[in-house]
Amino acid sequence: MSPREDAAPNAAPTTAPTTASGGRRRPQLTGRAAVLAVVVCAIAVSLAYPIREYITQRRNIAELEQQRSQLLAEIKVLDDRRRQLADPAYKDRLARERLFYCEPGMTCHVVMGDEPAKDAKAAPERQVAAPPWYQTLWESVEAADTGKGRKAIGGR
Predict the structure, then answer these.
(1) Closest to 97 (Cα-Cα) out of 82, 81, 105, 89
(2) What is the pLDDT of residues 86-142, one digit of tens each?
(3) For residue 102, what are the CA distances in angstroms to 65, 92, 106, 114?
(4) What are phi and psi of 81, to 5 degrees?
(5) In a designed cystine with 143, which of 21, 44, 134, 149 is the match (CB 3.0 to 4.6 A)?
(6) Residue 25, C-beta contacts closer than 8 angstroms, at least 6 positions apart
């Protein structure tokens, strides 16, 4: 008989544990899986910095494009202003309005000494408010007591 047949039928087998299918149970982490995990981690670590730099550069490019569009808009405004100042009619109008220039053959009048017109936005001058009635009454009593008050004219 073979050594297996001699063993007791209820005795535990001395070999490696088996699976339900009857084969040997494989370890959870094989050598190939460990090597694959190390390779995947190495690739992830080696790509982390370049990806971070890529994202940073894209952000910088977006900011520079926005700045460029703002500068182009400012250039357009300044170019329009340059064209406007190159127009002789505009220069003449500015000279008349700001510097009070008068071209030959024109009759110009400058009014001096008048106060400039007040803006509607300017606050109106505050008038002195009348004192309260009791203050006026008391002042009249004091004036009558000292004899320095005004005499009433008329027979009210």
Answers:
(1) 89
(2) 999 999 999 888 888 888 888 888 777 767 666 656 566 677 788 899 998 998 888
(3) 48, 9, 6, 21
(4) -65, -40
(5) 149
(6) 16, 17, 18, 19
Grouping H, G, I as helix, E, B as strand and the rest as coil, residue 24 is strand
Residue with tokens 């299918």: 21
Which residue, chain included where needed, has tokens 């007791």?
Answer: 8
What single-letter amino acid sits at 121? K
Residue 24 bridge partners (DSSP): 18
Would you give the DSSP letter of residue 9?
T
Dihedral sign for Cα atoms in the order 51, 57, 63, 68: negative
User: What's the pTM?
Assistant: 0.40
Q: How far is the CA of 44 from the CAs of 13, 33, 38, 41, 56, in angstroms?
A: 45, 16, 10, 5, 18
